[in-house]
Amino acid sequence: MIKNVIFDLGKVLIDTNPSEYLRKYGYDEEKYQALLDAILYDTLWSDMDIGKYDSCKEIVEIYVEKHKELEPEIRQFFAEEWMELYAPFEDALAFYNEVFDRGYDIYMLTNFSKDGYEVISNKFDFFKKAKGSVVSSHIKMVKPNPEIYKYLLEKYKLNPDECVFIDDSAVNIKTANELGIHGIVYTDCDSLRKCFAEVTK
After folding, report:
1. Which tens digit of pLDDT belongs to each residue from 163-178?
2. Which residues, at least 6 apart from 27, have a Cβ–Cβ distance to it below 8 Å?
3. Helices in the chain by DSSP H: which ranges?
4. In this model, does residue 81 exceed pLDDT 80?
5. Predicted pLDDT of residue 68
6. How many C-beta neighbours within 10 Å does residue 9 have?
7. Is there a contact between 104 and 4 (Cβ–Cβ < 8 Å)?
8. What's the pLDDT at 84?
9. Which of 77, 108, 130, 165 is most buried, judging by how many CB atoms fall within 10 Å of its CB?
């Protein structure tokens, strides 16, 4: 019997798309692609998810040193409050609220930077409905490492067979399944509702 629903955040509940934020500056395609490579596809970006740095602003100088030819653009990007653009997906949030109203316990399991999580968790009231959360940067482990799933289960004393985990990454869901958690790969809310109904029937 399913009692707990575990949500990923980015690309499931929260629209996290800094690549689109770069579009607002009107760069030509060559400059835009160069900035994607320098900022979002650099390993520094994922280092924030694993908690190597507490905030984006801590690593600006490292970015600039690695990509000196893009220094003005990099400084501009990190000087802006681009994280304020994070917003819930309304259809996914509606499902989240339905799950809560039906009496399931809600948890979060997410790869997220410290400052990014601080912004969204303080900004959006739906976080208050969750019984707990595990954030990669807080414990320095990231999905799909099985240990972060085990950490969640142990911290909140959850039985994996009583849990459904919803994530947009098939790799992350594979690990969940291997640990006995019922996983659903998120693509859209219509499919999610169908899969959830099947798992919980």
Report:
1. 999 999 999 999 999 9
2. 35, 73
3. 18-23, 29-35, 43-49, 60-66, 71-79, 90-101, 114-123, 136-139, 146-155, 170-178, 189-200
4. no
5. 96
6. 24
7. yes
8. 80
9. 165
Residue 109 forms beta bridges with which residues? 134
Task: Please tell me the predicted confidence (pLDDT) of residue 57.
Answer: 85
What average pLDDT does the chain have?
95
Q: Which residue type sits at 18?
A: P
Residue whose C-alpha is closest to residue 3's, from 143, 155, 153, 147: 153
- 139 contact partners, CB below 8 Å, separation of at least 6: 51, 148, 151
Q: Hunting for tokens 């990923």 — which residue is that?
A: 8
Q: In the beta sheet, which residues pair with residue 50?
A: none
Give the span between the Cα atoms of 144 and 44, in whole angstroms.
Answer: 18
Question: Which residue in 90, 106, 100, 117 sits closest to 7, CA to CA?
Answer: 106
Q: Are 184 and 177 in contact (CB under 8 A)?
A: no
- Taking only the tens place, the pLDDT of each residue in 104-138 is 999 999 999 999 999 999 999 999 999 999 999 99
Residue whose structure tokens are 């802006």: 80
Tokens found for residue 56:
């984006």
Encode 82-125 in three state secondary structure.
Answer: HHHHCEECHHHHHHHHHHHHCCCEEEEEECCCHHHHHHHHHHCH
